[in-house]
Amino acid sequence: MQSGRPNSLLFRVAIAAGAMVVVSGCGAVKQPAGDTPVLNQSFSPGSQTTVAAPTSTSPVRDSDAVRAALDAYRGMWHQLTIAAASSNHQVNGLASHATGQALTTLRGMLYDDSIAGLVTLGQPTLSPRVAAVRIPEVPIEADIVDCVDTTSWRKYKARGGVAENRPAGRRHTSAVVRNTDGEWKVSKVKINDVSSC
Known about the structure:
Blueprint: H1 4-30, H2 35-42, H3 45-56, H4 62-84, H5 100-116, E1 118-122, E2 129-134, E3 140-149, E4 153-157, E5 170-180, E6 183-194
Antiparallel strand pairs: 1-4, 2-3, 3-5, 5-6
């Protein structure tokens, strides 16, 4: 009877060892070798660079946006100066450089002057600079700040040509210029009181 025990013990050890091999083999099947490379690829430095690339390769460069925004802003003032000489709020030229709130504001200024019988003669002096360009956004926008000198751009009565006794000087001005379908226009403008800059 005692000679049978070692065989029985060896038999149990062999079964236990075989069961461990089967269990470890099943664990290997549950984790395919393909999982690790997929995880490594999605978090590799190369893939992060690829995701960030579209922001750095924008179709419009900062310098192009700055130039176009300033051109639109100056164009708006040029058309406003022409319209202000007769206080014609229905002039079409403004719409070629301004839109939205900016166009409404400028036409409102001209309308008020026409009702009051005033015209504005001379030339304002501009010194605009681009404070920010938002290129990754659509539409592309640029913020412009200016200190417009209206000393040589004065209001007069339309009849009689008597100069209005109104203060003239430097006015802090802010504007937003927007690129919509490749066309740059001033979409927002705020012209502050004299001596605001």
